[in-house]
Inverse folding.
């Protein structure tokens, strides 16, 4: 248990943090976030285009495939700043689709798709199922056949499926979990149903695979499927942690701002220790979570340590955001109970992230198996 | 400060490692204090004083302090290497905590040449033990309201009043003293002055305080017309509050300048995991219980978080939003964690939690219960956790004063 991860911060991370901080602040003020909640697409295509031009979609894609050639450690500060501004869009799902291809794709698939992702074609993953848990190998959807594969089953929480050009779905094939590429052009009418999800800034879909056929060349390398699923699981948790950490910071800033302006009984409510002290607890817990985040980012590629640091980071982020956002609603009093107060945006997002790829209790269980 | 020569540093680290391997006595034959606040017997005091002196003479304490004041004149990295070796071999604590971590950094920072020459070497060698006189019986957390009086008479101040929670007060040669020189100042803070005061003079008396553990380690200090030299004043008259706050920042780790080593040894997660493996419930080790596993993971994650926060303090772009945040939070984070970890450990011992230090059936000689009770010294002393919340809330988050 000696190496549980440590902090490291590259120049590239520092540069990206600085650029992303101002970009996300300017492009995603909360009025914009709220307008996009009402918009069916749910994100701003012009901003997406700008992000592609900045090269952000290729940060973790090797130069040979048209990317920048850095890693997920450098994606983390960008996603953290997006989380801080509740910025919507297919950035994370597209990055994760790229990771799936890198970890599990054939050479031909990588050469065909990665450059397009780096250029700005949105993509996504279809991994979750109704009776599944957070174990990505527990798959009941199937792909059967030889040269042509017939797919069947239901996939849940397929983010941004309506905008994505490419979906990578997990299926059971030939006695083992596998990953398969589905071009969204080929989806029959009615294959996608928009889900009503707790985090309204997101666009999430149920995908019915029944009736979809793909050539067997669309299967990712079956020999790498388990390793790819494991990598996706950790990568998804790392990026979720980044989003949650940024979100926690914003939630605390938002609450502190209210405590510094709202008066009751003739005093600013932030002067009352009943509100001040739990706000400090939220802040300290946030700082702990952020330290874990940058340890996980730095240690991510280290065998064993990366997994430990990432699971710890997700656990810490779940605790920090859940507490900060819960108190944010309470400390806004009557206003906190209204839709107009932003506190619920943070609380809803916390529940969303806990629901995807493992909550604190689940990650602690995994860590206990590894460490105790 | 000279450039770090990596080769010399590696050699120094290897020598320190070998030295501590050879010189740490795993069993001195009696229970050593875990912290500088628990030095309760002369036997413990004498042993630790000799130990600190030996470490200093070997060059592993104050390695980065200037040579002219008894230090080693080396870059900070050398002292870090020495402290690491000390920790690795479970060396006993450094005794002279107030001198090393409060007075020393303060004098190096803003002391006069005469003060540095007079005091610093004796701090490192443990020849001159220091104590701290801030808290008063009636003004525990409200330091700014201290009422001990110091009245100028020629080249002396005449001191009257009482200080409490004076760690090692009965052994100390000097005290850093916060006393009121102007009772009529419009702001209570402006009436305070900060002194380096001798303890072994007429009019200064110390009475030992028995702690909740049944042991000793603190005194109450009484001043009755005690005459202290005026040249012990640090800062101007009336600037005592500012100097005291600065001193607390050394203690809270928000400023550098400490000579190294450590003054507190804590049970860590490994010790608690080991305990959970040894304690049985219903025929199985407690470690097998999923509920216990969940709670143990919470502690491990939190301990790791605090360690990472220390590392992150050195990464400027990752602290720019609230630059003082991590430094001002570290006391609260670490002391509350130690208290909760010990409290949890006591519960692991099950029915034998009913035993206390001294009974042969007590688990691990009763260190868990004693450690838990002693942990309050850190969550109360140096500004209670509740005051820490106010400090962080007001100085980091910018909330209005309570």
């Amino acid at each position: 248990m000696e190496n549980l991860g440590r902090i490291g911060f590259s120049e590239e991370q520092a540069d990206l943090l600085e650029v992303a901080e101002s970009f996300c602040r300017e492009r995603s003020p909360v009025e914009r976030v709220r307008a996009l909640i009402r918009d069916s697409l749910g994100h701003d295509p012009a901003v997406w285009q700008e992000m592609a031009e900045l090269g952000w979609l290729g940060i973790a894609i090797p130069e040979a495939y048209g990317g920048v050639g850095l890693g997920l450690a450098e994606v983390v500060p960008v996603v953290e700043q997006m989380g801080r501004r509740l910025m919507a869009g297919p950035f994370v799902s597209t990055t994760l689709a790229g990771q799936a291809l890198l970890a599990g794709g054939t050479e031909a698939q990588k050469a065909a798709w990665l450059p397009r992702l780096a250029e700005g074609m949105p993509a996504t993953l279809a991994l979750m199922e109704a009776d599944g848990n957070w174990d990505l190998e527990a798959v009941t959807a199937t792909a059967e056949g030889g040269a042509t594969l017939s797919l069947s089953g239901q996939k849940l929480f397929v983010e941004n499926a309506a905008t994505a050009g490419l979906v990578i779905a997990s299926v059971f094939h030939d006695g083992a979990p596998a990953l398969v590429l589905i071009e969204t052009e080929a989806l029959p009418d009615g294959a996608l149903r928009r889900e009503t999800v707790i985090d309204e800034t997101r666009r999430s879909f149920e995908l019915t695979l029944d009736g979809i056929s793909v050539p067997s060349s669309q299967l990712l390398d079956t020999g790498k499927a388990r390793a790819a699923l494991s990598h996706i699981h950790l990568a998804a948790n790392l990026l979720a942690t980044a989003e949650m950490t940024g979100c926690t910071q914003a939630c605390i800033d938002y609450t502190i701002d209210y405590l510094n302006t709202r008066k009751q009984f003739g005093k600013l409510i932030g002067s009352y220790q009943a509100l001040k002290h739990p706000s400090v607890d939220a802040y300290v817990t946030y700082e702990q979570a952020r330290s874990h985040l940058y340890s996980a980012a730095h240690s991510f590629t280290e065998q064993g340590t990366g997994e430990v640091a990432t699971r710890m980071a997700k656990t810490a982020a779940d605790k920090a955001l859940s507490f900060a956002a819960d108190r944010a609603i309470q400390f806004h009093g009557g206003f906190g109970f209204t839709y107009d107060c932003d506190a619920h945006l943070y609380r809803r997002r916390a529940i969303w992230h806990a629901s995807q790829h493992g909550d604190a209790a689940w990650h602690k269980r995994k860590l206990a198996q590894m460490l105790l | 400060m000279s450039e770090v020569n990596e080769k010399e540093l590696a050699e120094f680290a290897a020598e320190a490692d070998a030295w501590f391997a050879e010189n740490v006595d795993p069993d001195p034959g009696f229970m050593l204090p875990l912290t500088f606040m628990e030095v309760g017997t002369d036997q413990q005091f004498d042993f630790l004083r000799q130990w600190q002196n030996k470490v200093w003479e070997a060059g592993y304490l104050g390695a980065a302090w200037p040579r002219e004041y008894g230090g080693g004149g080396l870059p900070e990295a050398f002292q870090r290497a020495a402290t690491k070796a000390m920790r690795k071999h479970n060396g006993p604590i450094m005794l002279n905590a107030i001198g090393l971590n409060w007075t020393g950094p303060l004098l190096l920072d803003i002391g006069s040449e005469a003060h540095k020459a007079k005091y610093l070497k004796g701090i490192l060698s443990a020849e001159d033990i220091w104590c701290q006189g801030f808290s008063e019986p009636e003004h525990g957390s409200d330091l700014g309201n201290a009422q001990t009086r110091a009245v100028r008479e020629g080249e002396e101040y005449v001191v009257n009043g009482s200080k409490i929670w004076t760690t090692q007060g009965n052994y100390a040669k000097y005290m850093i003293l916060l006393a009121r020189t102007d009772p009529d100042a419009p702001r209570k803070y402006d009436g305070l002055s900060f002194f380096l005061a001798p303890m072994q003079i007429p009019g200064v008396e110390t009475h030992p305080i028995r702690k909740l553990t049944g042991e000793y380690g603190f005194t109450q200090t009484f001043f009755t017309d005690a005459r202290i030299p005026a040249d012990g004043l640090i800062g101007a008259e009336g600037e005592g509050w500012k100097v005291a706050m600065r001193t607390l920042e050394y203690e809270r780790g928000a400023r550098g300048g400490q000579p190294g080593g450590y003054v507190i040894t804590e049970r860590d997660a490994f010790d608690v995991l080991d305990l959970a493996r040894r304690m049985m419930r219903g025929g199985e080790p407690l470690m097998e219980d999923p509920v216990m596993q969940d709670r143990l993971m919470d502690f491990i994650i939190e301990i790791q978080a605090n360690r990472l926060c220390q590392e992150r303090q050195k990464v400027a772009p990752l602290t720019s939003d609230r630059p003082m945040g991590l430094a001002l939070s570290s006391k609260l984070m670490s002391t509350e964690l130690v208290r909760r970890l010990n409290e949890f450990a006591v519960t692991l011992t099950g029915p034998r939690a009913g035993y206390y230090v001294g009974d042969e059936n007590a688990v691990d000689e009763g260190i868990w219960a004693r450690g838990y009770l002693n942990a309050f010294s850190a969550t109360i002393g140096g500004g209670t956790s509740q005051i820490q919340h106010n400090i962080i809330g007001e100085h980091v988050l910018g909330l209005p004063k309570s």
Chain B has eleven helices and ten strands. The interface with chain A takes residues 270, 273, 287, 290, 293-294, 296-298, 300-302, 304-306, 308-309, 311-312, 315, 317-318, 321, 325-326, 329, 332-333, 386, 389-390, 392-393, 396-402 of chain B (CB under 8 Å). Chain B has three domains: 6-95, 130-251, 269-396. Residues 325-348 of chain B form the longest helix (24 residues).
